[in-house]
Amino acid sequence: MTQPSAKIEVRALTMAYGDFVIQRDLNFRIEQGDIFIIMGGSGCGKSTLLRHLVGLKSPAKGEVLFDGASFWEAEEPRQRAMQQRMGVLYQSGALWSSMTLAENIALPLGEYTQLARAEIDELVSLKLALVGLAGFEAYYPSEISGGMRKRAGLARAMALDPEVLFFDEPSAGLDPVSARLLDELILQLRDSLGATVVVVTHELASMFAIGNNSIFLDPESKTQIAGGDPARLLRESRDPRVIRFLTRGERTEWESRSDG
Amino acid sequence: MLHSSEAHGLLLVFSGCWRAQCTLPARDELLRQLPQPFQGELRFDSADLRGWDSRFVNWLLKLIPPLEKRGIVVRYEGLPPGVRGLLQLATEVPERAGARRGATRRGLLATVGEQIYRLLDGGKALLEFIGELLQALFRMLIGRARMRASDLFLFVQQNGIDALPIVALIAVLVGLILAFIGALQLQMFGAQIYVANLVGIAMAREMGAMMAAIIMAGRTGAAFAAQLGTMQVNEEIDAFRTLGVDPLEFLVLPRMLALTLMMPLLCIYADLLGIMGGMLVGITLFEISPSLYLQQTLAAVSLADFGVGVVKSLVFGVLIAVAGCMQGIRCGRSASAVGEATTSAVVMAIVAIIVADAIMTLIANALGV
Questions:
Q1: pLDDT 10s digits, B283-335
Q2: What is the DSSP string of B257-296?
Q3: CB–CB contacts below 8 A, A to B
Q4: In a shared domain, residues A152 and A166
Q5: Quick one: which of B183, B346, B127, B160 has its CA closest to B257?
Q6: Which of A170, A197, B104, B113 could form a disulfide with A35 if both were Cys (CB 3.0 to 4.6 A apart)?
Q7: Confidence at A259, pLDDT banded by 50, 70, 90
Q8: Among chain B residues, CA nearest to A163
């Protein structure tokens, strides 16, 4: 091992439900500060890969390394500690419906820190303010709109100041403007918190806008067929499957463009 | 952390750890230490800051506004860029006017009033539901309801056959208990043979129907509410409505029909098993011969007794299905709403069963059945 250990490294990962293999032989590194995009057509196993990365599903084969330490070989307390360093924004927010937004965010803070009640309340307000939801502490998830629920989910994901933030389809169900604002928020948070961000998305605009590294999963060959900066992938990839995806099916072949 | 006065203002020097697990200095202390009529600039130095997280940001966020209110100019340059970004982000979107709301405390009278209104609303909703259900039933009778036979068979299986083991267990145990308690008392008069009458009549008229109904309320009524409630959460019920399919026809009718058809059968099944349970006690503990016990039972229990039980169970079936389906259809759109719907369905069904049983017992008595 000559390279320093990446924030997250996946080695020879095979994902399967029972005997049904979703993807095999995945190998990639996510560096500190990356915004890493997991892309691919519907049903190629993007969300399943995310579930492997956050420790919800164990790999059929291979390893997931977190700061150089294997997640699945670690003891359970170690795994819990690793998971506390991740924050996940689920597709529809996954806020606990029986709790107010403030209680949703306060729960991890109360469980894992020794802070006083008053300070937890202040931190909750801060997190909500960061996602533009100041003043919505006492609302229940059912009382706010889908976009707000997503931002509140982000506030909860950030509750413990995680080192890695995972997003599952962050812009799904948002209007283009809100989707862009969320992208900007992700960038700002990455810059301010110094966090690493992993995004599952098929929103082309957003992956070009924020991503600086990626992996492309193919449902046919059941493995990764491309990776790297999405914008570069669009310029340089010769693989018709990748080009088709990145141009919304408008092109299937690589063409050299003479724009400067 | 320390601070020092300078010619044109104040320099706040941060050092050490400002994370969740560290101890932070009190802000009030700092504010008090400021020279009192203080004008000028506040600058920061964070060169020695070893680590920070959102606690640091929060600390600053609460410190700065009171200072700015006093006319102090705050210069952010000395803070780490990340902190500056977060501070800006946190103050960027102003609080939406009227959004905040505190914990509201209501008086006793208001709470009582609200509860009564809720009760009235619930009553209105129940009437509405029954009205719509009757319409759907009518459409079914004239053969125009959209309902799948396969659904009906599936529910017949779930509500009937699949419930047999649990109904059997409870019915036998109830029979055993009735027989045991009754026989102990009757033994004092040497009349323990009459335990057959007791168990037979009690099971046929009352306990068979009642026990089957309570099991089905907990088992099937709850399942109806949870299924339909989850469908409501997933917008599946809206999908039926927009396609012009009445969810009452498609979802509620088959469930109600299946349960109403199966309840009398479950009731007779429970009756027979309960009598068997009683016989078991009579034979083993009180030395009554099986044939005698059977004869005594046949002489004591008439077909009318079974009839009363079967009619009751039919009514119970309708009540359980209405309670379960209504709570499911009226469910809110969250996980906790599904839980509430399921709870209400079971509570409502059991209360309705007991009340209906009392009324029907009185009617049967008045009619002399």
A1: 999 889 999 999 999 999 999 999 999 999 999 999 999 999 999 999 988 88
A2: HHHHHHHHHHHHHHHHHHHHHHHHHHHHHH---HHHHHHH
A3: 82
A4: no
A5: B160
A6: A197
A7: very low
A8: B53
Strand-pairing partners, residue B15, are: B48
CATH number at residue A30: 3.40.50.300
| Same-domain status, A135 and A171 | no
Q: Given pLDDT bands bounded at 50, 70 and 90, which one contains residue B102?
A: low
Interatomic CA distance for residues A247 and A46, integer angstroms: 19
Question: Residue range A96-121: average pLDDT?
Answer: 87
Q: Among A203-217, B170-184, B247-261, whose mean pLDDT is lowest?
A: A203-217
Asked whether residue A242 falls in the same domain as residue A172, the answer is yes
Q: Is B4 helix (H, G, I), strand (E, B) or coil?
A: strand
A81 and A115 part of one domain: no
Please tell me whether residues A1 and A123 are part of one structural domain: no
One domain for residues A19 and A73: yes
- Nearest CA-CA distance, residue A26 and chain B, Å: 33
Mean pLDDT is highest, among B21-30, B99-108, B325-334, for: B325-334
Whole-number Cα distances in Å, A221 to A18, A22, A23, A216, A241: 19, 10, 8, 12, 11
Q: Lowest mean pLDDT of A179-188, A205-214, B11-20, B221-230, name the range.
A: B11-20
Distance from CA of B90 to the nearest CA of A (A): 4
User: Residue A102 is part of which domain span?
Assistant: 93-156
Q: CA A28: distance to chain centroid?
A: 15
Comparing alpha-carbon positions, the chain B residue that sits nearest to A159 is B54
- Tell me, yes or no, whether A242 and A197 share the same domain: yes
Q: Which domains does chain B have, with CATH numbers?
A: 2-92 (3.30.750), 115-367 (no CATH)
Q: Is A192 on the interface with B (CB under 8 A)?
A: yes
State whether B93 and A191 contact (CB < 8 Å): no
Q: Do the Cβ atoms of A134 and B333 come within 8 Å?
A: no
Number of domains into which chain A is organized: 2
CB contacts of A191 in chain B (<8 Å) are: 81-82, 85
* Chain B residues within an 8 Å CB radius of A113: 20-21
